[in-house]
Amino acid sequence: MEIEESRQLTIDGEVCQVPAGTTLREACLQVGKEIPALCWHERLTPANTCRACVVELEGSRTLVSSCSRMVEDGMVVHTDTPRVLHARKGVAELLLSTMMDDVNAPELQKLAQATEADPAHFRVGETLVQPIRDDNDLYVRDYSQCILCYRCVAVCGEDAQNTFAIHVAGRGLQAHIDTGFDRSLPDSDCVFCGNCVQVCPTGALIGKTEWSLRQENEWDEKKIQVTETTCSYCGVGCSLDLHVLNGRIVKVTSPYNHPVTQGMLCVKGRYGYEYVQADVAHLQGS
Amino acid sequence: MSPQHRVPQRLLPDPKIVAQSGPISPQRLQLRGLDQALRRAWGMTVTRMIQEVQASGILGRGGAAFPASVKWQSVRDADAAGKLKYGVMNADESEPGTFKDRVLLETDPLLPLTGLAIAARGVGADKVYVYLRGEYRHLLLPIQRAWEVVEGTVPEAVIPLEVRLGGGAYIAGEETALFNSIEGKRPEPRLKPPFPTVKGLFSQPTLIHNVETLANIALAFRDGAGPFRKYGSASTPGTKLVSISGRVNRPGVYEVPFGIPLTEIIEGEDTAQGMQNGQRLQAVLLGGAAGTFLTSLEVAEAAYDYPALRRFGASIGSGALVVFGETDSLPEVAQTLANFFAEESCGQCVPCRIGTVRIKEMLEQFSLSERQVDLRDLAQTMRDASICGLGQSATTALMSLLDRPVLWSKNVDRGKGAV
Amino acid sequence: MVGSNAAEAHPIIFQHILRGVHQGAKLVVVDPRATLTAKRAHEHYALEIGSDIALFNSLAHVIIRDKLQNQSFIERATTGFAALQAEVTQWPPERAAAITGIDASRIEHLAHAYASAKRAMICWTLGITEHHNAVDNVFALINLALLRGNVGRPGAGLNPLRGQNNVQGGGDMGALPNRLPGFQDLTDAAVRNRFELAWGVPLSPKPGWNQTQMFEAMADGRLKGLYVIGENPLESEANSHHIERIFDKLDALVVQDLFLTPTAERADVVFPAAASFAESEGTYTNSERRVQLVRSALTPPGEARDDVWIVQALARAMGHPWIDKSAEEVFAEVRELAPNFRGITYARLAMAQGLQWPVPHKDHPGTAVLHTRLWQDPVDPRVPFMPVDFSPPVERPTVDYPLLLTTGRRLAFYNTGVQSNVYAHPHNQGEQVEVALADAERLELTEGMWVRVTSRRGWITGPVHISASLPPGVVFLSFHFPDQVRTNVLSIDATDPRAGTAEFKAAAVRVEKWSPSQEA
Ligand SMILES: Cc1cc2nc3c(=O)[nH]c(=O)nc-3n(C[C@H](O)[C@H](O)[C@H](O)COP(=O)(O)O)c2cc1C
Ligand code: SF4
Ligand code: SF4
Fold first, then answer.
1. Is the complex ipTM more than 0.90?
2. pLDDT in tens, B155-173
3. Where is average pLDDT lowest: A261-275, C113-127, C273-287, C404-418?
4. Is the pTM of this model over 0.80?
5. Closest alpha carbon to B94 in B239, B323, B290
6. For chain A: N or C, fewer Cβ within 10 A?
7. Residue C519 CA to chain centroid, in angstroms?
């Protein structure tokens, strides 16, 4: 039997014991301190790029990102010093300075509220506002809302899909998600599994149906009913959450804690549902 | 330079030797005593080698001044799993105002490559890489040929060497970004820890040193730790190559002992030979783009050593000294630096990706005093929360300027940058 | 992975496999085509179509010759080793090389790689089973796993990746001619007795017909009436023209489907059905025997009803006083009658996100690994080695039909396209006839040019796609776009009598240039 090693550390004055291999953020959660994070995602390798999850670690010159820093014996950690709160607020203000006020980024907006960030503070120039990329009928890309969290890159790559259709290109504020020379999605290596859409924390990647309904102001989160069922295509048995609005499926996701999918689907599971609600005329024609 | 600070040329070869031998010839190796350095190293156990490095007190010359022996030990210790190990020479030299690695590799490539061979033995590396700044491609062949000369001297030292050319990104000089670049990925810095000595190139234990650090390693093995420490200060043994540019009579690369007064470097007959056209010195930017502005008063007081400079919040960095005269507008210089960082940020993390651009924009649109509070506010976020040294220190020079109002508050009539 | 393009046909399983690969597992793909799956593998063995048994027997040959078998496992848990040895001694790598087209040295290498792995899993899909000797193909793989004791342990095993959402579940529920619900043997009197008691009717001990046998019976007039639930055999079965002819002979055809498929169009009666995954309640069983809930999220359109409801209403209409049961009530009956399902309830399924049968009682966590008993003493009964001999595909290339057609799936589409051709996939450009580079050159074909593909059973036309992933001599078609290309007009209905699966993976064809004017 392997004996699980444990580590002892102090978080905001409270001494605690956690298993080796725990991240600081998980350790904080265990003592009831929830640390905000934007790029971190339960299903993905931490990218630690948003820096909203920084905490103060005694002995460290800079703040450290709690999503990926592993606990060590004797660490003394502070989660809400003025320095920490200042950095968090700075992250929110910087991100907000690149986008319009009406962005669809609930997690960022939550962080902004919690830190009392002023969206206008650093709006002194360049933004990411740009035309929407609407080049296929399954999902739309609006990089004006992108926070460059790298989730889509990770999910398209080794963390799940292994398709490697997208990556970050450019540097500095020009860094952006790219299909390779900005090709349209149908011309790229994309296989339209939509796993990137599922993990995207903003409206940067959004299902075409949801996007169209939002355009017409008909997307109403409160009226959506979610039913968990099983995919009808191949024999893998993927769990589907059908999001139904006004009697129609408008989105399909999969739960991250499901043993088969761990939140991931293929294009058929995610978008291949139209046959149950195709209009009759179309079917009679076929 | 005063006689007490005059050093026989060590890192840079004596003109006599240069006259007698080609830079990549076996004679040069001998004239420089590098055959002896190699033989001494190969006559030692690796434990003894690490002790030698420790005794010589060499600090890394790539900017962070980290004790070389500590890195060696850590790579050495990482062998539990019987892993492959790598040695890397960082020749990406892209820090503005810094050009000493180029001079060193052009005039005497055998010295750092001897150091690389010795370091590879010290840590048990299976393969070595040289990551060469793209613009230095003329040095690619000389480096490979110099490696052959070294290998010819100690045939048992034969391990593969690969030279990789950088693609023009400053950030690729940061060690973990450099690993990513060699691996064929975007040069984005990785989070540390894990440190390179434990998980570096291709996730294997890796020793990475700057060119000049490796040159010092060669000298320490040639002369022994005792003689090596003859120059420099007690806390920082050895000599340093400084790159001097700006309003001096003789810009260039000079070898000086640690601890020498700054004024001597600027005024010295063997070094920069004083200010151009008798201008008065206004400030020195010490350590490169991420360095610190020192006023003329501070320059007059400062000695070129880490503990001495700490008093001014400054450091040696990559060894760059950019000298400004009375007529130079330092707010404009700060703007140039801000442009540089906004251009060179890899774009990975929020504080640096967006912060560097906002700094640049604020300097373009406002005077320093107008947005002083916001600049300081943002600088703190960037310093505290950026992933790597670039974002963490992108505002160091600017902050040092803000902290020294004499350098900008009287430039009333000099454009946007002034008050 | 053998005969499996999981990257396209089972994308989510393939994600799990690649996670293993990133963590150091080694992936070997055996497939005639350089599929997306093969491209992600460490090693790819492109064997001649249908030469599988030659390869597997030769791997067994090398393992036994070099004494790499797990002798203690073989002695404890298996029977018939001597017979296997006798068969595979005739398969030195040189002989297999001549048949498979794979170098003898690579066969040796693969045998050693498989034998040196502490845990090795073999996965396969229809590349193994859509052959006239499907069952032998599977036996040959089982032999390999038994030689190394790669069964009944985590990380090892034999893993057929199920092609459809509920093939496993259909079998579980007794939709096989010789099985009762719970995969129980119809010929076992005790089992039958249990069902007879519960259902109050006598059950015939004689297994029914499998699909191939039904088709034969339709052809010679012994079968007059057919009730088809959720299938489109007119497009999905091999040798379509023949199928059309035998369907014409039926006196009565009842089709229950979501859509008016070409099969439904011929029916005397059509029962419109609700879409199972979104409009009705029930369970599916996936490839790993995980029974999972299906729930209704939408109201079915018009008169469409749950399959369960239709079947029960039909029974009542035929004069049987069946009471109307919900899917969950039917499942309760299954639990009572099938020991493997006894511990499964809808409530537990919801809590546990599915359970892998067998689940013998209500506190049982389900069974992730089958056959663990092979590692517990005594092993009773022991498992037999099943020596098999190689037999080439029924159709070999000839002068008239010089190429071999093999069929398969494409990632974004599914079966005959009834479901998958409805949504707006950007790559939905219809079917293309995939031809190997060398053949395209020889036939002077260019990308997009129209060709006619002819087999002994019929012909189709379509645009050419020149594919670098095909070996010379092989043509590839999917069967997802029957409106446009009726692939199964070409395929051969040579069928494995034991499995009832046709040899979709190998039909001799000829490809020629074609222009639409020729049609008239
Ligand atoms: C943004 C950035 C750029 C850097 N560029 C260089 C460089 O061009 N050359 C170099 O030797 N070190 C560079 N470094 C320092 C390296 O990361 C690393 O500290 C050095 O290679 C270690 O060598 P040393 O131990 O010999 O000093 C850079 C660091 C940062 C943060
Ligand atoms: S598109 Fe979405 S998931 Fe991708 S980097 Fe931008 S915000 Fe993150
Ligand atoms: S600090 Fe700047 S250069 Fe460094 S990782 Fe962050 S964005 Fe990249």
1. yes
2. 887 799 999 999 999 999 9
3. C404-418
4. yes
5. B290
6. N
7. 35
Residue B194 touches partner A, C-beta closer than 8 Å = no
Bridge partners of B309, per DSSP, are none
Segment A163-178, tens digit of pLDDT: 999 999 999 999 999 9
Distances (CA, A) of C366 to B28, C343, C347, C369: 75, 9, 14, 9
Q: State the number of CA atoms in the 13 A half-sphere of B373 facing the CB.
A: 2
Residue nearest (by alpha carbon) to ligand 2 atom 3: A200
Residues B241-288 have pLDDT tens digits of: 999 999 999 999 999 999 999 999 999 999 999 999 999 999 999 999
- Please report residues of B whose CB lies closer than 8 A to that of A86: 377, 380-381, 384
Report the relative pairing of strands C290-294 and C282-285 from DSSP bridges: antiparallel
Question: Do the Cβ atoms of A273 and C10 come within 8 Å?
Answer: no
Range name among B4-13, B70-79, C494-503 with the lowest pLDDT average: C494-503
Q: Is residue B353 within 8 angstroms of chain A, CB to CB?
A: yes
Comparing alpha-carbon positions, the chain B residue that sits nearest to A60 is: B384
CB proximity list for C122: less than 8 A, separation 6 or greater: C1, C2, C141, C144, C145, C150, C157, C158, C159
Beta-carbon contacts of B286 under 8 Å, excluding residues fewer than 6 positions away, are: B262, B292, B293, B294, B309, B314, B315, B316, B317, B320, B321
Count of A–C CB contacts within 8 Å? Answer: 177
Tell me which ligand sits closest to the C-alpha of residue B58: 1
Best C306, C423, C480, C484 member to test A by mutation, with max A CBs in 10 Å, is C423
Closest CB to A172: pick one of B347, B364, B377: B347
Instruction: Give chain B positions within 8 Å (CB) of A172.
Output: 342-347, 353, 356-357
The boundaries of every CATH 3.10.20.600 domain in chain B are 239-325
Chain B residues within an 8 Å CB radius of A83: 380, 384
- For B:326-345, CB contacts with A below 8 A are 342-345
- Residue A283: the pLDDT is 42
Instruction: Give the chains touching C; criterion: ≥3 Cβ pairs < 8 Å.
Output: A
Pocket test for ligand 2, best of A148, A173, A196 (most atoms within 8 A of CB): A148
Interchain pair A237, C287: CB under 8 A? yes
Q: What is the DSSP letter of B169?
A: -
CA A158, A162, A165: angle at the middle one, nearest 5?
Answer: 110
Task: Give the nearest chain C residue to A234 (CA atoms).
Answer: C164
Which two tokens mark B55? 């005794």
- In the predicted model, residues of chain A with pLDDT beneath 70 are 1-3, 279-286
Is the CB of B353 less than 8 angstroms away from the CB of A175?
A: yes
Distance CA B356, CA B343 (A): 8
Place of tokens 């002023």: A118
- In chain C, the domains with their CATH numbers are 6-161 (3.40.228.10), 167-356 (3.40.50.740), 403-519 (2.40.40.20)
CATH assignment of B330-411, among 1.20.1440.230, 3.40.50.300, 1.10.390.10, 1.10.240.10: 1.20.1440.230
pLDDT class of B193 with cuts at 50, 70, 90: very high
- A162 conformational bin, left if phi > 0, alpha if psi -120 to 50, beta if neither: left
Query: Could you tell me where in chain B the CATH 3.40.50.11540 domains are found?
Result: 3-228
CB spacing of A63 vs B377 below 8 angstroms: no
* CATH 3.10.20.600 describes domain B239-325: yes
Both tokens assigned to B215:
């040159």
The superfamily in CATH containing domain B3-228 is: NADH-ubiquinone oxidoreductase 51kDa subunit (3.40.50.11540)
For residue A70, the chain B residues in CB contact (below 8 A) are 193
Nearest residue on chain A to B345, judged by CA atoms? Answer: A172
